[in-house]
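Protein 1 of 2
SEQ + STRUCT:
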Amino acid sequence: METVPEEGGIHLTRFTSDEENTIATAVYHTNNNNSLVWSGNRYLAVSPDGSRLAFVRWVDNKDNIYIKNTAGGTSAVQRTFRTAVSDISFSPDSKYIAFSEMVNGFSHIYMMNASEGSAVQEITSANNYDDLNPAFSPDGNLIFFSRIEKHINIINNAQTATYNGNFTIWSYNLKTGLLTQYDEGFDPCPMADGKSILVSRTSKQSGMGEIWMLNTESGAVTQILTSPRMGFSNPAISPDGKKIVCVGSTPATPTRPTNLDIYTVNTDGTSLTQLTFHLASDMCPAWSADGKTIYFISGRASNAQRYNVWQMGYTKLM
C-alpha cells in the first residue's frame, strides 16, 4: 500500500497486480504540466449485485474485458476476445455487459452475457460516428451512449481522424431497436429515477470539463459542477442517490504538478470533497453496491509504472 499524508485516514488497498496490465484513461500534460487533457473512457465497472468487478487488460497486444470477484482470492476471467475494447457497463440485473470497441477506425457499441458464452450483439454500427460510454437505464431497456461525428482522412498512406461538432447523448432501445438523440454531453450515468442522467460536458468558456444533469423526458439540463480552474468527468451516482463520485483535475501547486484525483459532490452541486491526493493520477471511479467502497484506477505504488485497480473505504469519509 502507498499513501500520502492527506490520505492518512483512508483505508486503501490494491485490487489488481502489475502483471494484470490494467488499462487506464489516457492523460496528457500540457503547458509545462500545469494543465491536463484526458479521455472520458470508463475502464472499470462494478456489477449492481456487488459480486463482480470488470476492468480492461492489455494482453497479447489486445485490450479486453476481464472480470474478477469483488471478494478477491480468484484470478480474473476473460470475457471479451476482441482487439480494442473499452467503456464497460453492467446491466441492472448484472447478467450482461455493454462495451465499446474500435473497429476499422470507428468505435461501436456492443453487448454480451457477463458470465457465459461468447456471442456478441452489435448495438450501433454507423461508420461515420464514434459511439462510446454505454450505460444501461435502471429498467435495463435502454443503453445510453455518447456519439460524435467522425471522418477518416488518408493522406500519403497516413490515417487521421477529423471530428465534426460536439458529443451528444443517444439511447438504443433493446426492445424496439429505436435510436433516440438527446442533448449535448458524453459519459452518461443514468440515475435511479429513470428520467435523469448525469453527463460530462466541455465548458464553452473555459474549456474545462463540467458535470450536468439531463432530464431525458423534458430535455431540461442543470449544471451540477463547474470550475474555471478544474475539469471534471466520469460522474457516477452513489447507490443511495445522494452523492456523485467523479474525476477532477487538481490544480498545480509550487511543489506538485496538476494531476487527476477522485472527488465527491452532492447531487445539488454542494460539498465538493477531494478524496485522493497522490501524485499519481487516479481515475475511473465506481461505487460498490453498498456504497461503502469506491473502486478506481491509479498508477500509484507501482515500480513498473503500471496502472492497477484500487479500492477505497468510503464510510469513514461520510
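Protein 2 of 2
SEQ + STRUCT:
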Amino acid sequence: MSLLIGIIGKPNVGKSTFFSALTENAVEIGDYPFTTIESNKGVTYIRAKCPETDLGKKCKPNFGKCANGTRLVPVELIDVAGLVPGAHEGKGLGNKFLDDLRRADGFIQVIDSTGSLDQNGNSVGRGKFDPLDDAEFVHREIVLWLANIISDGLIRNIRKLESEGGKIENIIYEKVSGLGIDPKDISAAVKSAAIPSNLKEWDEGVSVRLAEEIIRTSKPGIIVATKGDKIDQVEASKLKERGAQVVSGDFELVLRKASKAGLISYFPGDVSFSVIDLPKLNQAQRDALKRVEDFMSHNGGTRTQEAVEYLVYKVLGMIVVYPVEDENHWTDKNGNILPDAILLRQGSTAIDLAYKVHSDLGDRFIRAVNGRTKRILGRDHVLEDGDVIKIVAAR
C-alpha cells in the first residue's frame, strides 16, 4: 500500500461512521467520547479511468477491481482516537493519537456539521458550537506536537551545527525523519518560516512557525463536515463557503450495506441508486432509502467518495500509472492485463516509478517504454496520469 490517509477530529464527530462507510469494515460506533480507542485501519478505493477502455480488453487487477472501465485503486485509511485540547501534552488519548499519524501522507479532518459537541466531544445541544472551531484547534494540536519534536534538544544541536558549519535543514530532517517527510519539504519550510539568521535567537515561536510550514507542505488535508443529512441547505452552504465539504457518512453506509445485501444497485460515488427488488424491502427500509434519495438529489450524492478523491487527486496531487512487463499487450509476465495501478505524485519520473515497483528495479533501471506510443523514455521523463509504462532493467 503506497498511500495512507489519517482520519482525524475530536471525539464523537462521526469519524468511525465515515471510516466504516468508506472501507465497509465493521467498527464500534457509539454516541459517546472516545468510542475509538484503538485505531481502526482499512482500505478504501478511489476511482480512475482504466486503460482497458483504450486496449479493448478486460483488465485483471492484483489489487482493487475494475467495473465498466472505472478502476478502483486502493488507498489505506487509519481512523484514530479523538483529539482533545492539550493532546500534544498527552491529554485524552493524545500521545497515541499523534503517534498513529506519523506515517500519514495527508489528513481528512472530520467535523460535526450540526455543531452539537464541545471540544471534548460532549453533547451540548444542536448549534451551540461552531463546527469550524474544531478545524482550528485540531490543526493547532498537530502543529504543537511537531513543534515539540523539533524543539527537543535543538539548542544542543544548533551549537554543534555552528561548530561544524552544517545546515539547519539537516538537523531538522534528522529530528522528523520518522514522520515520512521529504527533505525537499524541510528545505522549503525552513525558507518560508523566517528562521533567524542568528540561531541563538531560536525560540518556541520559531519552532511553531516551522512546524506550521512543514505540515502545510508535507501533510496537507481537507475538512469534511459529516452528518450533512441532519442540516438544511442554508447551513450546508455556509459550511461549504468556509472551506468544508459536506457529506453524509451515515447515508453512504446505508447504501453500501444495501448494495452488499443485493437490495439496490449502487457504485461508490454514484449520484443516485436504483432498487433491485422493491418487494424485498420492508417499510422502514423504503423510508430510509427515500431519505437517502432526497439527500442525494440535493447534493449530487452522499459526497463521501468525492471527499477522499478530492484529497488524493487535488490536494495531494496524485496520478495513477500502470506498470507492465509487455508494452505491446499491457500485461505482466503471466499474461495478466494491466495488473497494477500505482499512485505517484504529479511530477514523478520513470525512475520514481521503477523504485515504487521495487527498489531493485530502480537500482537496475536502463530505460522505460510508453505502452501507448512505444517511445523510449529516460529516467527523468515526467509521467502523466493514466500512463502505461514498461521498465527495462539490467539483468
